[in-house]
Each structure stands twice: as C-alpha cells, then as structure tokens.
Amino acid sequence: MTTIVILLVIWLAANVAFLGFVVRDDRKDRRP
User: Which residues contact 6 (CB under 8 A, 6 or more apart)?
Assistant: First the structure.
C-alpha cells in the first residue's frame, strides 16, 4: 500500500515539474 502511494506522489511531482518546464518554455518562445 505504501509503495503505491509513494509511486503516485513521485509520478505527480514529475508531471507537475514537466508541465512547469513546458509552460516556462512557452513563455520564453512567446516573448518578442
């Protein structure tokens, strides 16, 4: 049970970090 929770937390953290990285790239590209 604990292993599943840990995996979910790591997966969510990775997704948040990846989305934040993509958003940052998007903002940089949109700058003139």
Answer: none
Q: Which two tokens stand for residue 7?
A: 């995996």
Cβ-proximal residues to 25 (8 Å cutoff; 6+ apart), any chain: none
List, for residues 1-32, the tens digit of each pLDDT value. 799 999 999 999 999 999 988 888 777 777 66
Domain chopping of the chain, boundaries: 1-32
Tokens representing 21 are 């990285």
User: What's the one-letter identity of residue 26?
Assistant: D
> How far lies 20's CA from each of 1, 2, 27, in Å?
29, 27, 11
